[in-house]
């Protein structure tokens, strides 16, 4: 959660939306590479489920719940 004063711990600002986007791109790339390997075919349903879960978390956490920004984005004056 965000700090309510300048005396609290200072956390470097990051772009969470970008972090989720880059993470999703890496997962999709890793999935494509893994599917080239015939030995992982049995794990495909697990991988597909993980990707769908990731999409759901991204939609809920990034797009819907925090669509207007995250708390630290609204309180920039607490960052050094």
UniProtKB/TrEMBL annotation:
From which domain of life does this come? Eukaryota
This protein's name: Uncharacterized protein
Q: Which organism is it from?
A: Trichostrongylus colubriformis (Black scour worm)
